[in-house]
Amino acid sequence: MKKTFIFLLTLVLAVTVAFFWGCSDDDNGMNSGSLDDPEFEAFGEGFDMADDVTGQMFDLTFGFVGQLLDPVEGKNATNDYFEYHSNTQYWYCSTTVIDDEVEYAEYAFVDTIQFWHGDYIVQWPKEDSLTQILTYAFVRPITPPDFMDSLYAEQGGALSLPQAGSDTLTINGSGSFYADLSDTIEDDYDTTVCEVLLDYDIDYDDLSVYISAMGNEESDACPFEGVLTFNGEVDISCTSTDQSSVSVSGEWNVAESFDDGTITITVTHGNTVWTITEDCDTGMPIKQ
Known about the structure:
The structure is a single chain. By secondary structure, the chain is an alpha+beta fold. It has one domain (2-279). The chain is 17% helix and 50% strand. Strands 1, 2, 3, 4, 5, 6, 7, 8, 9, 10, 11, 12, 13 and 14 form a 14-stranded mixed sheet that branches. Mean pLDDT is 81; it is low at 1-25.
């Protein structure tokens, strides 16, 4: 189970921006926005970070879970810190994440995790008895990159199996994301610098997945049901080397709905809506 939990990142949260460039449809009398709209494109570039950080946080949580399911192999293989608090019956887990893709930066990731076998809280979970995981996590910069003024993200909730040994995992919870930074976008013809402020509340409602599909590289392994929503405000101002500019501000809300192999992404700003629908492989469930 350790490996399949780690692969859950690509299933749940790494889909939004990739689908922004599909086809837009009319939605309940709202104005249908063009996917070539410069404001929509600027929003997509900024929102990418909220989506990525949220997914990376799940990745780290599932990494901790995997290590505690296999404590000998897992803890010897990393420098992560684990401490069990018997008074709260939660694991305290932390690690330092280094990102040097653009410039060197360090981030602290802290998670509190509690395991349930049916009606009982346990310190050491067993794969064939585990029915629920409670988690609350946050990330903050230790050594932020020069382009970042501030960043804070948190998320928490319950990861539930309908019964021990089930192949179905359901995620319910909420989180938030705040970032104030500059973003530089370069291509063969132009360089664009964006000042980005993002402030989002995030909800995970009955996101249900097949655990057995997580390690299947031939499957997209997206949820087969549930909704992921980002509600909040942005303030984005972009200027290119050719002196063209675009600004985006106000409420921009995103909803990702999953329905048995179909993902519908709805982006709403004022009375304009962008709706993108794509196929999404859920993977084949194993027999219970």
